[in-house]
């Protein structure tokens, strides 16, 4: 099984990500360096959906944080739309969705979505219109005046998704975004995410330790191994959508991936 | 699930029957207090304990000749000035001490010291420094209210959620916006409880300050009435103060708090 893109040329299309020879060390408590990522090579074509799969502690979240520009690697570089991330400036077109919904409790649904637009200097009326549009996209337009505590876990997750989408990102990075939801709600969010990607065509990179989630959603599953974090394999998923985790072909792939972790 | 949600959203108001019940209880309580007061006053000379009717007449007298509104206004103005001064200085200092650990550690011992100094001592200092003037009362209110506001705001900065700061960071939000949009809303409930405490204390100590070092205001008039053994007027002024504090609490503070922190209160009531 080989990678979807084998060549070392840098994709320059909007939404394309290239990780080139990235290594990362953390300082441990006693001061000695600990390598968390070793020589990561990864090319993510624009408009694709890629899962980074691995056991906890394999550095998958660190890799996502490096792609997002939150963490700087000691070696190697990340290219976004063909631009090295050090020179890249349009970070607001790269959205990041956290493991927790991180909704501000003092803000209503609408204002929580607007929050993502408040970093820049977009006029209030436009902010509101765009936030409403994003809420419509996730099916929460009738709950714009509700406070977070009034929403169910699934709804809160949708609000967080709307907040990530309101900036019209070309890249959406997600760090185990649905891991705290129950199985049923999680499946609903998967459908939702696939529907939205069909509509918006952004590149989605998500970190997960859930094999079924990776198989159901991704075009390519990047399997990582721990100590130090490295890419063990990249598995393209050619199954047609929508996929069902209980179907034989899907289950077989999931089983195969589990043996890789 | 949507129906459940609708219920949760609409379950805000207290049921009407319960409110009426509570109102009746309050009326009964006031009635009992008035009754006991009236009976007690029957057997005692009026300069020791004036009855409700006598106090009511005194109240009418001071309110009709403008004495009441005049002095109430003066005292309220002094309390307000001291309180605003305490907020303007205490709020930024509280945020500063909270945001900068080194500064916070350095100044931390000052707050308990300020809090232990009695308001009466501040009043004596104020008379030495400012004499009989408005500044005396304002200073005492300020010195009492400021440590309370600093302490509460300081505590508030400790509860700022690092996850929200990271969220703002991911959005590349400039730091002054992080202060306004994340720090301030987090601190606000703490500031509010500090401010309410400070205002209540300020009001009480202002009377002490006016008794000692002023020629106007409610505190001054209270002492004057006491000196002239006009006990009915002492009662009338006291009653006015109680009513005014209750009106401020229920008419201004509580509705404002309910509105500002509706996201919080209801979440706690769940």
Order of helices and strands of chain B: HHHHHHHHHHHHH
Ends apart, CA distance between termini of chain B: 16 Å
Q: What average pLDDT do the residues of chain A reach?
A: 89
So, the CATH homologous superfamily of the largest domain in chain B? MetI-like
Any idea how many domains of chain A? Answer: 1
Specify the CATH architecture of chain A: 3-Layer(aba) Sandwich
Strand fraction of chain B equals under 5%
Shape of chain B: globular
User: Which spans of chain B of ≥5 residues are poorly predicted at pLDDT below 50?
Assistant: 1-13
- Oligomeric state, counting identical vs distinct chains: heterodimer
E-strand count of chain A: 10
Largest sheet of chain B: none
How many helices of chain B in DSSP terms? 13
CATH class of the largest domain in chain B: Mainly Alpha
Question: Would you kindly provide a brief summary of this structure?
Answer:
Chain A is α/β, with parallel strands linked by helices and 261 residues long. Helices cover 31% and strands 25% of the residues of chain A. Chain A has one domain (17-260): Rossmann fold (3-Layer(aba) Sandwich).
Structure, explained:
Chain A has 261 residues and is α/β, with parallel strands linked by helices. Chain A has a single domain, classed as Rossmann fold (3-Layer(aba) Sandwich), CATH 3.40.50.300. In chain A, 31% of the residues lie in helices and 25% in strands. Chain A is built from seven helices and ten strands. In chain A, strands 6-7-8-3-9-10 form a six-stranded mixed β-sheet, sandwiched between helices. A four-stranded antiparallel β-sheet of chain A has the order 2-1-4-5. Chain B contains 13 helices and no strands. Chain B folds into two domains: 1-43; 61-269, MetI-like fold (Orthogonal Bundle), CATH 1.10.3720.10. By secondary structure, chain B is an all-alpha fold. At the A-B interface, loops of A face helix 1, helix 9, helix 10 and helix 13 of B.
